[in-house]
Here is the input.
Amino acid sequence: MLDDMLDYLEHIRDRPVWQPMPGEVRAKFRGELPVAPSELSAVHAEFMRDILPYSIGNTHPGFMGWVHGGGNAAGMLAEMLAAGLNANLGGRDHSALEVERQIVQWMRELFGFPETASGLFVTGTSMANLIAVLVARDAALGFDVRRAGVGASKKRLTAYTSIMAHGSLRKAFDCSGLGGDALRLVPVDHRHQMNLAALKRMIESDRRGGETPFLVAGTAGTVDIGAIDDLDGLAAVAQEERLWMHVDGAYGALGILAPEIAPRLAGIQAADSLAFDFHKWGQVPYDAGFVLVRDGDLHRKAFTAPAAYLERETRGLAGGSAWPCDFGPDQSRGFRALKTWFTLKVHGLHALGESIARTCELARHLEQRVTDSAELELLAPVQLNIVCFRYRCADADRINARIVADLQESGVAAPSTTRINGDLAIRAAITNHRTNFSDIDALVDATLQLGRAMTQVAVEDPDLEVVQRD
Ligand SMILES: Cc1ncc(COP(=O)(O)O)c(C=O)c1O
Here is the structure.
């Protein structure tokens, strides 16, 4: 199994980025409950035949969809070790928790948070955002809200983030009981940075209307185009308005490892909470999300729940309080910290920073190829590692959606789509450390080829409306 997976990573380029799972293979996963045992080798053979070839493909250098990290072999091996230990990191006194605490300490240092800050591994930034919102909510309403519920408070809390913020923030408000509408969406400028003057006006208007503004969430690396809010400016507004400052740094926060990106994150150290993922730009295998909270005491008060069966002691295995289950909703927790610890130690922060900077260099190369071609159009300024562009033609939304699906099915490249000012864009988020210039060129060449073929055959294709290149 080890040989297979090491070979898989070593020869990943020889495979298609992705291929659809044939119906007959999919049907094998509608089988009966496995009452009788099977040989390990037989189950492994099934994995190699029916699972591995139809995986999502984000280990492949041609994968540029959504924001997916590429993983790394050291992290993969650490996952095996972690599974062998089978440690439960909800709490108690054992080595795995020291590894997690080590990473909490490193992250405090990296992001300029104080010693009193707390940190926790979670599934991903969606969960990290939720935890941050819950801590901020409880701090604003008082911790009795945990007993009495949000309905018991007369305060109507409101929060602010940009219209470009990730949907998980709205979900967090929905899950918090405050409701998605409590999260106001602030307009952005042409570079997709939150408009701070508009933010202040919205806060003022809400205060006049009897609402209680309590939180502002900036984004470090918007999901659509990779914009970074003015975090210094946001910190000033948060301080002036006495708001909790949260930063969703899902993938962008680790840009702090790249000297050319770090200055653009200035202000992140002032956040009350920060959510980010090691599984994106950090290249740690999925999943490895993380939340840092400046005031660890508030964080603990938002989640701690005494129970006789979780009694803490000063000695023995029940020692070592506070436990991670005091800082989030999970009691049973896996050893996400180990693959992160291995990745950080084996590669070192310097190399990780270089790989982050390189993905931005590749994005600039893609930007150049797009602007050099009269057939392609850049739809948004390139600020980090994300490029939004499209093939110029009539009925461009439909044609470009087809181009993306064809690219994915061709196995050459796997970008995704988004909408920029209503227009469907081919979106390449270059996150994988294995991607190089030839992969970018392959994406552009295949896009041009498909675009030309589609617009030429369109006249004969009754499925399409009139399609002609500009
Ligand atoms: C800005 C931003 N926030 C939050 C998320 C959600 O992160 P996760 O998928 O790890 O939950 C993403 C995912 O791409 C993101 O880009």
Q: What stands out?
A: The longest helix spans residues 336-372. Residues 464-470 have pLDDT under 50 and may be disordered. The radius of gyration is 24 Å. The first strand starts at residue 118 and ends at 122.
